[in-house]
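Sequence in, structure out.
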Amino acid sequence: MKNLLAPLMFSMAITAVAAPADLDGRKVALAWHTSDEGFHDSTAQLSMTLEDRRGNQAVREMQIKTLEVPGVEDGDKSLVVFESPPDVRGTALLSHAHILEPDDQWLYLPALGRIKRISSANRSGAFVGSEFAYEDIAGMELDKYSYRLRGQEACGDRQCAVVEQVPQYERSGYTRLVVWYDLTDYQPRKIDFYDRKNTLLKTLTFEDYRHHQGRFWRAHRLDMVNHQTGKRTLLEYKSIEFQTGLDASDFDRNALQHLR
């Protein structure tokens, strides 16, 4: 899954895009997707720090479970559950990512004791007051976008391919994303999000990448800055485990019912 909270199914080797002369935008994004194949499922503990324009902060603790859905016809599944503080404890978001069809998402609100379906018209809304939108949580499946390589440039101590990605699904809150993929491990280092007026809305940076099981890269620090409001949301991984025995039954609506 190319969920932005868990970096974030196609049979092409990374070496096929390693030569700069052979680069194009889709091949670079494909190398990212391919590098994550085979994780099956994961469970992670994170902290989420919300910061307003004055620097005031609020910290939340959360768990994210992810299930890989092999193949090219559908996207992966995820379940986010907040564990603290008390005012958000038990709030949960279940996401079933799709390609061009609207993603299925359900929000469980413990204070109301009910499950709310997130309509495709509201996917650009803020996820529980953070700078991440609902559509960010569902994931960046490969065929959700068209791709154009804009060039290469330095990104820290690495060289990055700069790829413009235009959403192909309806009712996105973004006209385009510009993604910096490093050309060493083919992981995203930065994403600029442009709003419906094609104005820069926010920037997500990925830091502290770690290699798990000798196969899977995960950024352990994700920093989303909203340029229009001055707010930011920082996600920091505390732990992550792979192949914990999760299956599809852990990601249906009954999973939300069990949170009650």
